[in-house]
Fold:
Amino acid sequence: MSSTSSQTGCHLYAFKSNYKTTAILIAAAFADETVTLEPSFDYGRLSQTPEFQRMSPLKKVPVLVTSLGEPIFGASSIAWYFGTLGNSLVPTRPYQQALTQQYVSLANQDMYAAITSWTYPVLGYLEYSPEILARTQAAAWVQLNYLNDVLKERTFLCTDSVTLADVVIFCLLQHVYEKFLDATDRGKLVNLTAWMERCSHLPQVAGAVGKLEFCNVPIKHDPHRYKTLQPKIQNYLKSH
Structure:
């Protein structure tokens, strides 16, 4: 592991199965930047090494080492870095820049909390409660309906072209559309669904996530899934 400028392209230390990592890779593709994702990323091991701690003194992930050997930690900072290269995903007008930041922050805070509180218990990552699920699902739909209203007269969220806001929110909602929202649900979110399709057809997005596969039958809670996953999750947490 090296942070010297002798490396070719950028090097990313990140968890692969994370929407923020996907957003970073898409942002890099828009900037025509080559990014190598650490193939055997083991946070528990790497975070204890002096090399990693020099790049990320607070042991934060993800961490990017640029082609010049300059380290950046934090998903939002890394995505913004790529978005500003050639103004590929960050608008030049200050107001639209602020809008981009607004939606990225919304995605990573309120939307993330609402979406995961609804979907994670069903997926077996958190304990399931029908009463709590009803509330969290309602909170998630507040966010979805808001985006649907915003996109009623917009092609993309902030400008007439794609921005980092579109990339981040698309990545956050991908699994929701693929596992939770059936045709009836999507019919209530016509504008948002059209936007999801529009984003998915962008070459930089399709190259990172493949084809967006809409849900036919929403995934249901399975007690066995929770029992199976919990030991693995606990072991993972202990090692990190």
Remarks:
- The longest strand covers residues 10-13.
- Residues 94-123 form the longest helix (30 residues).
